[in-house]
Amino acid sequence: DKSVGKGFEIDLQAWLTDSLLVTFGSGYNHTEIKDPTLAVAPCAACVVTNPADANGKVLINGNALPQAPKWTHNLTARWATPLGDAGELYVFIDWAYRSAVNVFLYESREFTARSLTEGGLRVGYSWNNGDYDVAVYGRNILNQVRATGAIDFNNRTGFINEPRLLGVEFKTRF
């Protein structure tokens, strides 16, 4: 029949010192399916937690919308200091969090993706007004592995976030 959603979002940015910029974002999202007769076919090999109707389909009234985390948060910080005549040494860190999500319309133990926290770190040197940059970096530095989605073909196929990535980068603008 319908679904409803409500929530809020906030984004803040502040220079805490002349060389330290911090950003913060947070969001709350409440979604709900409102249809007491709506039923869908579930995964046959899953532990489904929704009640079933007389036809073996599961009733999803009251469930959250799929892939809709209740909470999201992000935080970044960039510190930089002049180094040499035209260069800058910098450190950048970022964090992102999302609460658990229901992967499909129905709820099941196998397809509820746990909360996910990912962070990145970059340390580099930029010179010639940013035309050149060399850095070492890491993504998913906690190496947290979480399901981020799935395919519902009765075989419990899921997919996960990117693994930890470490690297070196040289960048030029022209």
Biggest sheet: strands side by side, in what order? 1-2-5-6-9-10-13
Mean pLDDT: 93
Contiguous runs where pLDDT drops below 50 for at least 5 residues: none
| Major sheet characteristics | 7 strands, antiparallel
Q: How helical, in percent, are the residues?
A: under 10%
Label this structure with key terms.
13 strands, 174 residues, mainly beta, two-stranded antiparallel sheet, seven-stranded antiparallel sheet
Please sum up the structure shown.
The chain is mainly beta and 174 residues long. The protein has strands at residues 2-17, 20-34, 39-40, 58-59, 71-82, 87-98, 101-102, 112-113, 116-127, 132-139, 147-151, 157-160, 165-172.
Structure description:
The chain is mainly β and 174 residues long. Helices cover 0% and strands 57% of the residues. The chain contains no helices and 13 strands. The strands form 4 sheets. The chain has a 7-stranded antiparallel β-sheet, with no helix packed on it. The chain is elongated, with a radius of gyration of 22 Å.
What topology does this entry show?
Elements: E1 2-17, E2 20-34, E3 39-40, E4 58-59, E5 71-82, E6 87-98, E7 101-102, E8 112-113, E9 116-127, E10 132-139, E11 147-151, E12 157-160, E13 165-172
Antiparallel strand pairs: 1-2, 2-5, 3-4, 5-6, 6-9, 7-8, 9-10, 10-13, 11-12
